[in-house]
Amino acid sequence: MQYCFLNGKIIPREDAVISIDDIGLLRGYSVFDSLRIYHGKPFLLNEHLRRLKISATALSLKIPVTDKEIEKIIITLLEKNNREDAQIRILLTGGKAINGFGFDPEQPTFAIVVEPLSLPPADLYVSGGKLISTVYLRPEFAAKTTNYITAVSLAKERKMKHAVEILYLSNGNVLECSTSNFFIVKGNNLITPKDNILLGTTRNFILELVSPDFTIEERKISYEELTEADEAFISATSKEVLPIVQIDDIRIGNGKVGINTKKIMEKYTAYVNKL
Amino acid sequence: MQYCFLNGKIIPREDAVISIDDIGLLRGYSVFDSLRIYHGKPFLLNEHLRRLKISATALSLKIPVTDKEIEKIIITLLEKNNREDAQIRILLTGGKAINGFGFDPEQPTFAIVVEPLSLPPADLYVSGGKLISTVYLRPEFAAKTTNYITAVSLAKERKMKHAVEILYLSNGNVLECSTSNFFIVKGNNLITPKDNILLGTTRNFILELVSPDFTIEERKISYEELTEADEAFISATSKEVLPIVQIDDIRIGNGKVGINTKKIMEKYTAYVNKL
After folding, report:
1. Could you tell me if A176 and A198 are in contact, meaning their C-beta atoms sit under 8 angstroms apart?
2. Does residue A25 belong to the interface with chain B, where contact is any CB pair within 8 Å?
3. Which of A153, B75, B124, B271 is spaced 20 to 30 Å from A193 by Cα?
């Protein structure tokens, strides 16, 4: 049996239900965070918890347990669920809706769930993936809210077009993907957007990890600039560093996984293997 | 005990729960509609069901029961809950999430809930209400999704400023309120936005009801034009016709409930009293 944590208790996963009056359901008023477990150890836990706090604050939500308690719950759940490699999803809503639009920050819904890894196909890391783009600026972009209507709506088209992710554009600039951050490499420059996006923990970790090897530019990338990129990749907790060789009809570089992207992938893998 | 309908069954309201894996919670992938019951009779039921279909189609969701069945369920719930005047909320999500972003349209979550009326204070209909504005264009504006993060976030400020609703602006035009439509009166012209908004059933009903009395203009209203309005009001299922006398720092007309707005309110009330 699998277990999860819901509102103060560890319970069987199948018993984890919320009221249909929860404001997370009724008004989509909810934030979450996802982190990766490597060999039984939470990766970038503090960074994820820091971001969960940013998300919660943006929506005036209150996390009902301490960071230390969250760590303890995660370790307990991994043991009870007998998992070494997994993803952890932490969900926080305003709890039961009061008169439609109100909620009591002291009575949130708070869940921690262990999920099996859902990884992209391995061959994508060898041949590179494709992105499709759409014009979309996430509202409350600095918070990791559960508002993914655009991404879910486009999932079918994405699959039909054999794309691994959806790249969001706004005002002619590329921003982020639906659950990933976006990077290009030009010469020795590693370039990634900084504004109007969710600053991914994996993104931030990569920038630190490879800062000795590249000139880092956190700045706007116009859609046109994609044609000048030598390489591109996306980053996410589950996807790690995933090379991108095509965006809509634009071939990136020579259409093959770039040498610098490979180096970043290797450095990332080496790091997490040592955890 | 109160009852509701959930996934094919009428059950006690307190037992109405959904899985924490529901895509309506995890990804905010959900639509709904609310309708009013007057003296035991659903008001504008067909219009609300028509819009629910528009919302469902926009998100590729499938309503699992027929219109006739929905009507029967509503009548049964009103009897079992012993209610004559109430609101009905119909909620439709993609059901259990499949691999994070997928869902089976044949296995939705579908709920029908009876709610007590939550009406604005009666004195607002005499003295007129106030709106505060914010720049916001609802994504998927033609669908009544559960994405109300902006409205919930601003609820505290709205209350502090004694405003009854939040008016959304985009590109210098007024669009709609968080759960209401917006109208102004200029001379004998009744003017209301038409594009980039949710077309409210109450809005559409009012336009039909008073079309003999006014020149109807469905068109853009700029924020500046508010200073030229003689009168203003908002409409919604629960609020009916609610006069507005102030928007941010702009006094509408002479700051009192307008004579035409009063006429529309009276005509509306006369109509629903005869139901």
Report:
1. yes
2. yes
3. A153
Positive/negative CA dihedral, A142, A145, A148, A149: negative
Strands A173-177 and A165-170: antiparallel
**B28–A28 CB contact, under 8 Å:** yes
Q: Which are the contacts of B192, defined by CB distance < 8 A and separation ≥ 6?
A: B181, B182, B183, B184, B203, B207, B216, B217, B218, B221
Q: Among A29, A113, A156, select the one facing B20 at the smallest CB separation.
A: A113
A chain contacts of residue B116, beta-carbon cutoff 8 Å: none
Interchain contact, B139 vs A140, CB within 8 Å: no
Contact call for residues B186 and B206 (beta carbons, < 8 A): no
Q: Cα(B271)–Cα(A237) distance, rounded to whole angstroms?
A: 57
- Shortest Cα distance, chain A CAs vs residue B253, angstroms: 30
Contact assessment for residue B106 and residue B76, using Cβ atoms and an 8 Å cutoff? no
A160 touches chain B (CB under 8 A): no
| C-alpha to C-alpha distance for A143 and A33, rounded to whole angstroms | 10
Chain A hits for B100, Cβ within 8 Å: 118
- Picking from A219, A225, A221, A222, the residue whose alpha carbon sits closest to that of residue A207 is A219
Q: Which of B237, B275, B24, B250 is nearest to A148 (CA)?
A: B24
Burial class (CB in 10 A: 0-12, 13-18, 19+), A25: buried
In chain A, which residue's Cα lies nearest the Cα of B7? A20
Task: Check the CA dihedral B126-B267-B112-B72 and report its sign.
Answer: positive
Each of the 275 residues of chain A gets a pLDDT tens digit; together they read 999 999 999 999 999 999 999 999 999 999 999 999 999 999 999 999 999 999 999 999 999 999 999 999 999 999 999 999 999 999 999 999 998 889 999 999 999 999 999 899 999 999 999 999 999 999 889 999 999 999 999 999 999 999 999 999 999 999 999 999 999 999 999 999 999 999 999 999 999 999 999 999 999 999 999 999 999 999 999 999 999 999 999 999 999 999 999 999 999 999 999 98
Burial degree of A263 (CB within 10 A; 0-12, 13-18, 19+): middle
β strands within A214-273, DSSP E: 215-218, 221-222, 231-236, 240-247, 250-251
Determine contact, residues A32/A58, Cβ cutoff 8 Å: no
ipTM, interface predicted TM-score of the complex: 0.94
Concatenated DSSP letters of B35-61: EEEETTEESSHHHHHHHHHHHHHHTT-
User: Tokens representing A189?
Assistant: 């420059």
B94 touches A at CB < 8 Å = yes
Is the Cβ–Cβ distance between A264 and A210 less than 8 Å? yes
